[in-house]
Design goal:
With about 160 residues, this protein is an alpha+beta fold. Helix content is about 30%, strand content about 25%. Strands 1-3-2 form a 3-stranded antiparallel sheet. The longest helix has 19 residues. The radius of gyration is 21 Å and the shape is elongated.
Amino acid sequence: MIMQNPYREVYALGQHISMSAHKARRVIDQIRGRSYEETLMILELMPYRACYPIYKLVYSAAANASHNMGFNQASLVISKAEVNEGTTFKKLKPRARGRSYPIRRPTCHIRIVLQDTSLYDLNEDFYGLEEDQIFCLKKAEWKNKYNDMTYHNMYNSGGLWDKK
C-alpha cells in the first residue's frame, strides 16, 4: 500500500488580472478557509466584479487537484488565498488645451491554494509523526469560527444608519 504525503497542496495562480489588489482582497477574505463547494456558491452570489476571475481560479485549482493529484473535489478546502499587487499599466489621455492626463491601470496576482481534508481523517499514527508535527497538519481552530455566512456580511445586517 502506498502512503500519501499529507503535505500535498494544489494551487492555481492568476497573474496580471486587471483590477486593484485592494478590491480583490475584499473578496478573497470572504472565502479563505472555506470548503470548495461553499466557495463556489459564495462567489456566484457576491455582487463584486472581482468574483469572476477568483471563481475561475478556484475552479482551475480544483481541476488541478482532481486531475494531477487525484483528490476528491468534495474534500477540498481553501488553505491559502493571497493577492499581491502586479504591474501598473500607465497611459496618457489627451485633455483640453493640448494637455495630457495620466491613467493608471493597476493589476494584481492572485494565488489560490487548495488542501485535501480527507488526509486529516486518516490515522496520524499511520504516518509515524510526532505530536508537534500533527498540530501543524490539523485544521486551525480559527477556521471553525467563520462557518456562519452572515458573520462576514456586516454592512447588510443593520441597514443604513438613521440620523435623526
